[in-house]
Amino acid sequence: MSRIFITGSSDGLGLLTAQKLIKEGHRVVLHARNDKRAEDARELVPDAEAVLTGDLSDIGETKELAQNVNALGSFDAIIHNAGILHVASNAKSRDGIPLLFAVNSLAPYILTALINRPERLIYLSSGLHRSGTVTEDRLELIVDGTNFPGYSDTKLHDLMLALALARKYPDMIVNAVDPGWVPTKMGGNGATDDLDKGYETQAWLAVSQDPDALKSGRLLYHKKEERFKPEAADEVLQEKLLSVCEKISGIGLGITEL
């Protein structure tokens, strides 16, 4: 039996992933943006071990969430599922950061830096990452608020984060998942991919002893390794992304290179 923490698990793929893992006998801690969504999550997943709250668009709340996760003890896996899509292109967070970047890119970085290291890390990317654009200059412009990354850019960031951490954490299993275009609230009713397959891969990566689930540094779609945009594997760009996240958040990963 494994113990898993899932961000953004009060609805959508995060909730479905939690339900699947609990049904299989695993212990799951949920996360919701606020108290109302936490109440909804408790009703939908009464067998969850706990529900933690924290607005991932707020750096302070994200740090507090990490502290609360650590207070519960160790986890075998963390699934960084939370993400947003439908916001104004120039929307900013309370901290004055481009909102899509704050939630989709910076929050998983902060949580990764502050939560005690599990055995497995899973990051939700998207096939749309292939439409994303990342350069050193564009990353640097996020710091002063003159570049507002789009959704595709942030999903490319998530993949870059996963690949960078797989490189830096050779003793861990770190992967990214493309869940497909599935009919959740975010995906919409017109989505064409299988909803069940949209959450099976991350659940499998979190707990399976299948040799294919124990490999690291990949993007997976329906449990199969996918080719990804080459820029995601560029170590210079990865390091720039980490540097920008550290500069904005004031938090370093604290990794000693081997």
Keywords:
8 helices; globular; 8-stranded mixed β-sheet; 13% strand; Rossmann fold; 258 residues; alpha/beta
**Helical percentage:** 40-55%
> Tally of extended strands?
8
The end-to-end span amounts to: 31 Å
Q: In CATH, what is the homologous superfamily? A: NAD(P)-binding Rossmann-like Domain
Number of helices: 8
- Count of distinct structural domains: 1
Return the CATH topology.
Answer: Rossmann fold
Q: What order do the strands of the largest sheet run in, or round the barrel if closed?
A: 3-2-1-4-5-6-7-8
Mean pLDDT: 94
From the spread of the alpha carbons, the general shape counts as globular
Largest sheet: 8 strands, mixed
CATH architecture classification name:
3-Layer(aba) Sandwich
* Class by SSE composition: alpha/beta
CA-based gyration radius: 17 Å
Task: Give your account of this protein's structure.
- The structure is a single chain.
- The chain has 258 residues and is an alpha/beta fold.
- It has a single domain, classed as NAD(P)-binding Rossmann-like Domain (Rossmann fold).
- The protein is built from eight helices and eight strands.
- The longest helix has 18 residues, at 151-168.
- The mean pLDDT is 94.
Quick recap of the structure?
The protein is 41% helix and 13% strand. By secondary structure, the chain is α/β, with parallel strands linked by helices.
Task: Set down the secondary structure blueprint.
Blueprint: E1 3-6, H1 12-23, E2 27-32, H2 35-44, E3 50-53, H3 59-71, E4 77-80, H4 99-114, E5 120-124, H5 136-143, H6 151-168, E6 173-177, H7 195-207, E7 218-221, E8 224-225, H8 235-249
Parallel strand pairs: 1-2, 1-4, 2-3, 4-5, 5-6, 6-7
Antiparallel strand pairs: 7-8
